[in-house]
Amino acid sequence: MSHRRLLRPQVSRESDREGDGRHLATAGCLDKTARIWDADTGTEVLKVVHEAYVASVAFSPDGRHLATASLRTAEIWDATSGSELFTMNHPEEDQRMGMTGVAFSADGRRVVTVRTSARIHLWQLPEI
């Protein structure tokens, strides 16, 4: 197995590997992006941009969607086109605390977000 260095334009805080292992997603804290990379070539496949830093990324179990967690919101993106599909906003009183984690449920129909305040939110996703 060969290893290739993935070049990232900013600091990457977290990464997740797609279920089939062909793609890797990284959260770029400083540049407010999440990126999907080809795991074999190290080539950037997709970039999505948030309004604030991106602290966490996760692929859906089927690899079709990417979840990202940022300061005030978590987003669900189409992992092929980069289209924003769904936004999760935390209650106003909890927005001063940034999100630190995001994960899909095993069936891909729910998302869990974690905030710096240690609050955990479970979101039911619409059909996407």
Task: Look at the structure and give the mean pLDDT.
Answer: 81
| Low confidence ranges | 1-13
Record field, number of beta strands: 11
- Summarize the main sheet: 4 strands, antiparallel
* Proportion in helices: under 10%
Short description:
The chain is an all-beta fold and 128 residues long.
Notable characteristics:
0% helix, four-stranded antiparallel sheet, 128 residues, mainly beta
Structure notes:
Helices cover 0% and strands 51% of the residues. By secondary structure, the protein is an all-beta fold. The protein has a 4-stranded antiparallel β-sheet, with no helix packed on it.
Ordered list of secondary-structure elements with their pairings:
Layout lengths: L11 E6 L5 E6 L4 E6 L5 E6 L4 E6 L5 E6 L2 E6 L5 E6 L9 E6 L5 E6 L4 E5 L4
Antiparallel strand pairs: 1-2, 2-3, 3-4, 5-6, 6-7, 7-8, 9-10, 10-11
